[in-house]
Amino acid sequence: MQLDEQMKCWNHAAVKVLDIRRIVMEAGAQLSSYTLPANGFIYTIRGAAVLQLDGQTYKAERFYMLHGAKGSSLDIQTNEDFEYILLYYRAFLAFPSYRKKWLLAQPEVAPFSLQYGFAPSSPLGLLRYLDELEDAWIQSGSLDLLHTKSLFYQFIHEMMVQLAEQEIKTELADPVKQTLRYIQNHYREQVTLDFLAEQFNYSSRHLSMQFKRQTGHSPIDYLIQTRIAKARNLLLRSDATLSEIAAEVGYSDVYYFSRIFKKHVGISPIQYQRKMREEARTEDRPLVISESSIGRRWKSGYIDYENHYQYIDGGSTPMKRRKTSSSMIMVALLSITMLLAACSSGTATTPAAGEGTGASSNNSSTAVSSDTGSQTNKDNETRTVSTVKGDVVVPANPKRVVVLYLQGDVVALGIKPIATSEVFNGAAYKSELEGVNSLGTWFEPNPEAVIDLDPDLIIVPSEETYTLLKDIAPTVYIPYEKMTTEERLQSIASIFGKEQEAETLINNLNSKVEESKQTLADAGILDKTVSIVEGGLKGMVVVESKQYGRGSQALYEYLGMKAPEVVQKKIDVVSEAGGSNLSMEVLPEYIGDYVFRSVYEGADNLTDDPIWSSIPAVKEGRLIEIDFDFFYYSDIYSINKQIDFVVEKLLAAPRAQ
CB under 8 Å, gap of 24 or more: what pairs does 574-577 form? Predict the structure, then answer.
């Protein structure tokens, strides 16, 4: 960032001084891997030391100024007594119009997260302001705190003057390096994408995109792989119990840990331990854990959400972050309470809400089916829903519904939940969920937050979330990745007794599809080829299945349009999410008469790329940009809106010959 741009940011900033302290380190003392909890200035006033900020080395003698971003890792090594002042602050662009202008111009730059160090030309001027800041901060009265803020602005002004005089170079802290370092040091703790983004002053989506671009993994994938690698090591090199290993690598629930381990390694932890030790004995060699490197066995696929949560953004109503262990304890206590209540009321023969019985002969087939059926018990005002987990007894008319990821279908049925996993800002149904509580990422909900909401029904999309929440309230697991859009809607409708509404929605969608296909056919467009791509200057992903998302269902499944032959051959045989990552040099071979490009905040501008600009569809104006948020979801509400968008844009584009 240029210095004049930095000055403009300070001119539009609202600031809050968080802390100011004076620290003395004795000769030979060290500070290792200290994470800055906020943006901060370090001003050395006595002695000398070697400082490292995110691996960048600074040799600081008296009167040396260093600025680091929130989340940066600080190391200090001294050979003599060393004294410095540490000033923490928070700043943000205060005016919405300027903030929007800034984000549009430089979406990848956090204006107050720069890193730089320099020896001031007038060191005592800076020291004077810091001394006065410290005195006012210690007083801590309202008037003194106001004085602190005014002194902080004067301090910034003086520092900017001296930076300009020396033409000091400032550089942006690398959020990916910060995230990697944080995960390696804190993998035992509860870590979420939103928390990581907050740590380093970035949006969740931008951090996830940058991380994926540099490492090939999303942050949460990398966290899981780190934990699995550590667990493998412990399984082979220690006699620790499974519970001890699970706790050591960040999982308070040993059952959940076992499931995660098996999902990523292919076998259970105990089977893995036996297998590897047996191989070691057979080969008569020392135990060498070559498989413990991250990503050794990378399993991808639509259900693993590799294509999804790499872009997940933060929820609008963040819940208090707490330790997972306390969450699970609360869930366990709630389970015991429910069990005792059931026993005391003499209903021991009734299936516990949210549990699959699998006991009835009538349910033997539905226990392994992907469909969900229901039967209403009017006397008790409940409904028995048959699911892949067996029968679940739910309220006939639930009033407090919590739904993860599947909210679009719920909204389409006319139901407004009390809480959902976060919804992207551009989602078709975003406005329908105004005022609804957000529980964060769908795959990592906070059980305590769900308990606090006192739901009477929970709908989840995965085994993991079912296991985590099933004891809180009646919980229905919808294995949506194995269902068509229509099947999923019918399953959810059966939970609420809204089968007729679902049938109407499906019929209306089918009618829209036929009308849209006829409209495109009349315009001479339906028989043209279309491609869907996502990516930037370094390469593009070409969508090669109907299940990938990014408009693939609307275009290839519902409207029945075809891709270029080289892509269509794969679409015809691929039944899961699929796509190829291609270089720009070969990309033109995969582009049809029309091209849809999925874009998002921070996406590369390809206008000046000669290869991209030479593609006929791009050059002749048949490039249609689609918003990632809008085309992320595949529920019936979103599909309806996506078809409208696709047809409108195709009709508005120049005709392909």
Answer: 574/544, 574/545, 574/547, 575/545, 575/547, 576/301, 576/302, 576/545, 576/547, 577/301, 577/302, 577/307, 577/545, 577/547, 577/548, 577/549
Q: Where are the beta strands (DSSP E) in 128-215?
A: 171-172
Angle at 641 between CA 637 and CA 643, to 5 degrees: 115
**Three-state SS string across 439-475, please?**
CCCCCCCCHHHHHHHCCCEEEECCHHHHHHHCCCCCE
Paired tokens of 161: 């003057």
User: HEC states along 534-555?
Assistant: EEECCEEEEECCCCCCCCHHHH
- Measured distance CA(477)–CA(469) in Å, rounded: 10
CB neighbour list of residue 215: distance below 8 Å, 6 or more residues apart: 176, 180, 222
Torsion of CA 151, 152, 157, 158, to 10 degrees: 70
Helix, strand, coil tally for the chain in percent (to 5): 45, 20, 35
Q: Which two tokens stand for residue 322?
A: 């707490």
Q: What are phi and psi of 443, to 5 degrees?
A: -90, 0
Q: How confident is the model at residue 510 (pLDDT cuts 50, 70, 90)?
A: very high
The total number of residues shown for the chain amounts to: 657
Q: Which helix (H) or strand (E) is 16 found in, with range?
A: strand 13-25
Nearest to 392 by CA among 489, 475, 497: 475
Q: Which two tokens stand for residue 139?
A: 């007083």
Nearest CA to 587 out of 546, 549, 531 is that of 531
Query: Are residues 554 and 646 in contact, defined by beta-carbon separation less than 8 angstroms?
Result: yes
DSSP-derived letter for residue 67 is E
Name the nearest CA neighbour of 412 among 314, 485, 316, 313. Answer: 485
Shortest CA distance to 655 belongs to which of 593, 570, 609? 593
Kindly report, residue by residue over 361-385, the tens digit of the pLDDT. Answer: 333 332 333 345 555 555 458 889 8
- Beta-strand pair 475-477/457-460: parallel
**How far is the C-alpha of 390 from the C-alpha of 369, rounded, in Å?**
9
Does the structure show a pLDDT above 90 at 33?
A: no
CA atoms within 13 A on the CB side of 478: 28
Q: In terms of pTM, does the model score above 0.90?
A: no
Give the span between the Cα atoms of 54 and 173, in whole angstroms.
Answer: 8
Q: In sequence order, what DSSP letters do the residues of 582-595 get, joined into one string?
A: E-TTTGGGG--SEE
Residue 581, SS3 per DSSP:
strand
Mean pLDDT on 499-505: 95
Q: Which secondary structure element, helix H or strand E, spans residue 82, and what is its range?
A: strand 82-93
pLDDT higher at 339 or 405: 405
